[in-house]
């Protein structure tokens, strides 16, 4: 459990700076281009670790595993993270961080239905308190950007599904979070690159412009990379994408999907504070109230998992 909490801490730190780092270079890159670059870098950084983890395991790529990585990569990189990148363009970094963190609300019921993880009364209470905290931070009365909100919530739901897909793959095939992240990111990056290249085809580009999606025509691949953007790009690819997601899946393995989702309960409390110091985004009383509620909900979830693990140990001791 202690090792799992360390994984959660590192994942939370990297994920809480994700929207801020993206916002810093959002004007230099196309959203899909930046998505492709950071996940490609993340997969390359993780590949030596993934190969090391697979040595002596008897792992081999077959049709089933290839299809799995293609699907998980599509869910994460192509679908969820593309909506996420677009949301940051249309909303404040702190707002996107908070709304995207709602994926934790979906992870716990998804884990119950798809992974058969027990849904306790304390887990439900944690969900309710944390959700109220998120609503306080967002402050619905002042929401004036429905597009940014919608994109953030779609990204949240699809990322929650990706988390469950990743956990099921780990249980089925026996690989860890590093392998899961590395291969899925590589597959998703290849799929996204194919889509980017398709947008450069004349008839496709013209059609996208005709229907009002000119932003998605002629998407660049390397344009915008300069000495000023490289440090942020490296941080996004290596630390946020590579290490952040790996720690998240390692936390799932060391604890449970429900406990690992604490990353996204703490993130909306930490991200506004970081956005204040780095981007100068203000913190209101609503945000402070929400932070307190979210931290309280996180503590309840930890208590729930600790109690559940204690019951499981007692059951094993008497079996």
UniProtKB/TrEMBL annotation:
- List where the protein spans the membrane: 37-54, 66-88, 94-115, 122-140, 146-165, 177-198, 232-250, 262-279, 285-303
Q: What is its main location?
A: membrane
Q: Which residues form a coiled coil?
A: none
Q: Which UniProt keywords apply?
A: Cell membrane, Membrane, Transmembrane, Transmembrane helix
How would you describe this protein's topology in the membrane?
A: Multi-pass membrane protein
Which Pfam families does the record cross-reference, listed alphabetically?
EamA (PF00892)
Domain of life per record: Bacteria
Identify the stretch annotated as signal peptide in this record. Answer: none
Family in the record? Belongs to the EamA transporter family.
Quote the protein name from its UniProt record: DMT family transporter
């Amino acid at each position: 459990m202690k090792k799992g909490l360390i994984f959660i801490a590192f994942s939370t730190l990297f994920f809480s700076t994700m929207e801020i780092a993206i916002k810093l270079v959002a004007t230099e890159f196309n959203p899909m281009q930046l998505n492709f670059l950071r996940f490609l870098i993340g997969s390359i950084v993780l590949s030596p670790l993934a190969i090391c983890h697979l040595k002596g395991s008897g792992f081999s790529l077959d049709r089933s595993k290839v299809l799995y990585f293609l699907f998980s990569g599509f869910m994460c990189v192509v679908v969820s993270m593309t909506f996420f990148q677009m949301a940051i363009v249309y909303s404040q970094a702190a707002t996107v961080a908070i709304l995207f963190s709602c994926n934790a609300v979906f992870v716990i019921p998804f884990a119950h239905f798809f992974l058969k993880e027990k849904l306790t009364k304390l887990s439900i209470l944690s969900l309710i308190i944390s959700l109220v905290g998120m609503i306080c931070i967002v402050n619905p009365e002042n929401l004036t950007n429905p597009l940014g909100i919608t994109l953030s919530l779609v990204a949240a739901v699809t990322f929650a599904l990706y988390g469950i897909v990743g956990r099921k793959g780990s249980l089925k095939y026996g690989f860890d979070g590093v392998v899961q992240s590395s291969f899925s990111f590589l597959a998703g990056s290849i799929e996204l690159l194919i889509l980017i290249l398709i947008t450069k085809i004349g008839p496709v580009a013209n059609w996208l412009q005709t229907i009002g999606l000119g932003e998605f025509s002629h998407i660049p691949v390397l344009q915008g990379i300069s000495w000023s953007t490289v440090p942020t790009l490296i941080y996004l690819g290596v630390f946020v994408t590579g290490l952040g997601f790996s720690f998240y899946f390692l936390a799932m393995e060391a604890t449970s999907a429900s406990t690992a989702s604490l990353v996204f309960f703490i993130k909306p409390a930490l991200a506004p504070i970081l956005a204040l110091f780095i981007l100068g985004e203000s913190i209101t009383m609503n945000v402070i109230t929400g932070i307190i509620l979210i931290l309280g909900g996180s503590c309840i979830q930890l208590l729930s998992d600790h109690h559940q693990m204690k019951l499981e140990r007692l059951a094993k001791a008497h079996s």
